[in-house]
Amino acid sequence: MPWNDGMSATRKLGVPPDMQSGLGVASAWVRRLARHHHATKRCCGIGGLMAVFCLTGALSCQRATSPSQARPAEDREGAKRFYVQAQALRQQGAYDEALAACDQAVKLAPSRVPPYLLRAEILAEVNRYREAERDLRTALRLAPDEISVLLQFLRLVPPYASPQEKEAVARRAVARAPDNGEAHYYLGLALVNYPDATRWQEAESALRRSSQLAPWMALPLLELGKLYIRQRRFAAAQNALEQAWDNLAAPRSPLRAAMTPSELRGQQRSVAFWLHQVYRRRRDPRAAAIGQVLEKLRRRTEVEEQLQERAHAIPPDPEAQLQLAQMALQDGDARTAARYARAVLNQRPHDAQAQKILQAATGEKVKR
């Protein structure tokens, strides 16, 4: 086989222009080497084989680094279907199936943010906080200035995250949505949690702004009350905490509609605790009444915590899961009731009480 010009050979093989010169030089070098040693056909064959190896390797590298081939096209429509399915399954309390649907959505479209946020929220609800944090950080990396991502990160970020990181994310949220009361609340929360008092004035301003923008929220007022107690401004603390208590008690408040009964009781307990402290400090006769409310909330919380500890043990206690399902159904929390009823049925498929709770919560008929 006669030697051909290296550059023309690369052109015939469809080698990209930016690679032709290097391969032509390699081919010419092999040709000169063969002439210098009076190469036989065998030598020329070896040289040709070397050139082919070089050419094949170069083409492989070009294909591997091509942007169009390095990343497969995403199936966004398929991912959306799985995402919608995951939302529906979560509402039915089918958390394992919802997580599996989220996994498929992420697999089909790994650059799409909503599946990560939904999966993080579900993981947090089942106490898998480390995994939830990983999804939150992925979403934050993909959409660092998206307000929904910033707020979800601030809602679910673990307590051990530094105040500096929380402040940085909250400031980005405020910059993106200056009229969002929740963004100002998280900024104030980050500032008030610094170990010294140097940021208290900034924290108070952020919390006040949050309360102005979202007057139905209780958490900004709760944090203001706690801040005023630390500053020994007890009258101001009482005003803020009483307003927070009224917000939680309002039957048609947007706040109540956005929370589960368990979340509502948690906020009520926190507000009642600090309000009780202020009433006692100021010798207010209402201290006794709020103390009774606090004790009732505390007993309910303790019962729930004990049952949850048993329900999430290894192996889980189906009796504890059944009691939690009953309590959630009585509270009107259908999703939580369905979640624990399904957990019971995973262990005891013919449990009539769990079947009844699941049907009441979802309308789903369970085959006996």
Would you mind describing this structure in some detail?
- With 368 residues, the protein is mostly helical.
- Among the domains are: 6-54, no CATH class; 215-311, Tetratricopeptide repeat domain (Serine Threonine Protein Phosphatase 5, Tetratricopeptide repeat, Alpha Horseshoe), CATH 1.25.40.10; 313-362.
- 76% of the residues lie in helices and 0% in strands.
- It has 20 helices and no strands.
- Helix 8 runs antiparallel to helix 9 (147-156) and helix 12 runs antiparallel to helix 13 (219-230).
- The longest helix has 25 residues, at 41-65.
- Residues 1-30 and 36-69 have low confidence and may be disordered.
Which SSEs are present, and which pair or pack?
Elements: H1 6-12, H2 17-36, H3 41-65, H4 67-70, H5 76-91, H6 95-108, H7 114-125, H8 129-142, H9 147-156, H10 163-176, H11 181-192, H12 200-213, H13 219-230, H14 234-249, H15 254-258, H16 261-281, H17 287-311, H18 318-331, H19 334-347, H20 352-362
Helix pairs in contact: 1-2, 2-3, 5-6, 5-7, 6-7, 7-8, 8-9, 9-10, 10-11, 11-12, 11-13, 12-13, 13-14, 13-16, 14-16, 16-17, 17-18, 18-19, 18-20, 19-20
Identify the notable features of this structure and list them briefly.
mainly alpha, single chain, disordered N terminus, 368 residues
